[in-house]
Please model this.
Amino acid sequence: MPRSVNHVASRNRRKKVLSLTRGNFGGRRNVWTVAKNTWEKGLQYAYRDRKNKKRSFRALWIQRINAAARLEGFSYSQLMGALHKAGIVINRKVLADLAMNQPEAFKAIVEKAKNA
Model:
Protein backbone atom coordinates (compact mmCIF):
# COMPACT_ATOMS: atom_id res chain seq x y z
CA MET A 1 0.00 0.00 0.00
CA PRO A 2 1.42 3.43 -0.90
CA ARG A 3 2.32 5.90 1.81
CA SER A 4 -0.39 8.49 2.33
CA VAL A 5 0.64 12.07 2.97
CA ASN A 6 -1.74 14.93 3.40
CA HIS A 7 -0.22 17.13 0.75
CA VAL A 8 -3.15 19.57 0.77
CA ALA A 9 -2.61 20.45 4.44
CA SER A 10 1.18 20.74 4.19
CA ARG A 11 0.96 22.91 1.06
CA ASN A 12 -1.60 25.17 2.75
CA ARG A 13 0.63 25.47 5.80
CA ARG A 14 3.58 26.48 3.63
CA LYS A 15 1.48 28.92 1.62
CA LYS A 16 0.34 30.56 4.85
CA VAL A 17 3.92 31.08 6.03
CA LEU A 18 5.03 32.30 2.58
CA SER A 19 2.18 34.82 2.53
CA LEU A 20 3.28 36.07 5.97
CA THR A 21 6.80 36.72 4.67
CA ARG A 22 5.58 38.82 1.76
CA GLY A 23 7.63 41.99 1.41
CA ASN A 24 10.93 40.47 2.50
CA PHE A 25 13.96 40.69 0.24
CA GLY A 26 15.13 37.89 -2.03
CA GLY A 27 14.81 34.29 -0.90
CA ARG A 28 13.42 35.37 2.45
CA ARG A 29 10.02 35.64 0.81
CA ASN A 30 9.86 32.60 -1.49
CA VAL A 31 12.37 29.94 -0.41
CA TRP A 32 10.51 27.75 2.07
CA THR A 33 13.27 27.10 4.63
CA VAL A 34 14.58 30.66 4.59
CA ALA A 35 11.06 32.12 4.73
CA LYS A 36 10.13 29.87 7.65
CA ASN A 37 13.24 30.97 9.57
CA THR A 38 12.45 34.62 8.79
CA TRP A 39 8.88 34.23 10.01
CA GLU A 40 9.93 32.47 13.23
CA LYS A 41 12.58 35.09 13.97
CA GLY A 42 10.00 37.80 13.36
CA LEU A 43 7.76 36.24 15.99
CA GLN A 44 10.67 36.32 18.45
CA TYR A 45 11.30 40.00 17.71
CA ALA A 46 7.60 40.78 18.11
CA TYR A 47 7.47 39.07 21.52
CA ARG A 48 10.62 40.86 22.72
CA ASP A 49 9.54 44.25 21.44
CA ARG A 50 6.10 44.09 23.03
CA LYS A 51 8.01 44.20 26.32
CA ASN A 52 10.47 46.86 25.13
CA LYS A 53 7.60 49.08 24.00
CA LYS A 54 6.33 49.33 27.57
CA ARG A 55 9.85 50.10 28.78
CA SER A 56 10.41 52.87 26.25
CA PHE A 57 7.02 54.48 26.91
CA ARG A 58 7.74 54.60 30.64
CA ALA A 59 11.10 56.25 29.90
CA LEU A 60 9.34 58.81 27.69
CA TRP A 61 6.80 59.61 30.42
CA ILE A 62 9.59 60.09 32.96
CA GLN A 63 11.43 62.49 30.61
CA ARG A 64 8.28 64.54 30.08
CA ILE A 65 7.50 64.70 33.80
CA ASN A 66 11.09 65.67 34.57
CA ALA A 67 11.03 68.50 32.01
CA ALA A 68 7.76 69.87 33.35
CA ALA A 69 8.85 69.46 36.98
CA ARG A 70 12.05 71.41 36.38
CA LEU A 71 9.95 74.35 35.15
CA GLU A 72 8.30 74.26 38.59
CA GLY A 73 11.61 74.09 40.47
CA PHE A 74 11.59 70.34 41.18
CA SER A 75 13.59 67.46 39.81
CA TYR A 76 11.76 64.30 38.80
CA SER A 77 12.80 62.38 41.91
CA GLN A 78 11.92 65.27 44.23
CA LEU A 79 8.49 65.59 42.63
CA MET A 80 7.73 61.88 42.86
CA GLY A 81 8.88 61.84 46.49
CA ALA A 82 6.69 64.85 47.31
CA LEU A 83 3.69 63.27 45.58
CA HIS A 84 4.19 60.08 47.57
CA LYS A 85 4.56 61.98 50.84
CA ALA A 86 1.42 64.02 50.08
CA GLY A 87 -0.53 60.82 49.38
CA ILE A 88 -1.28 61.78 45.80
CA VAL A 89 -1.61 58.56 43.82
CA ILE A 90 -1.27 59.29 40.11
CA ASN A 91 0.51 57.15 37.54
CA ARG A 92 3.28 58.39 35.28
CA LYS A 93 1.25 58.05 32.10
CA VAL A 94 -1.45 60.43 33.33
CA LEU A 95 1.07 62.77 34.92
CA ALA A 96 3.04 63.02 31.67
CA ASP A 97 -0.16 63.67 29.73
CA LEU A 98 -1.09 66.48 32.12
CA ALA A 99 2.41 67.93 31.83
CA MET A 100 2.19 67.99 28.04
CA ASN A 101 -1.43 68.95 27.39
CA GLN A 102 -2.69 70.70 30.54
CA PRO A 103 0.18 72.54 32.24
CA GLU A 104 -2.19 74.37 34.61
CA ALA A 105 -3.46 71.07 36.03
CA PHE A 106 0.11 69.81 36.36
CA LYS A 107 1.08 73.01 38.16
CA ALA A 108 -1.84 72.54 40.55
CA ILE A 109 -0.71 68.99 41.36
CA VAL A 110 2.84 70.23 41.97
CA GLU A 111 1.54 72.95 44.29
CA LYS A 112 -0.46 70.39 46.28
CA ALA A 113 2.62 68.21 46.61
CA LYS A 114 4.74 71.21 47.61
CA ASN A 115 2.35 72.33 50.33
CA ALA A 116 1.83 68.89 51.87
The chain has one domain: 7-115. The radius of gyration is 26 Å. The chain has a mean pLDDT of 95.
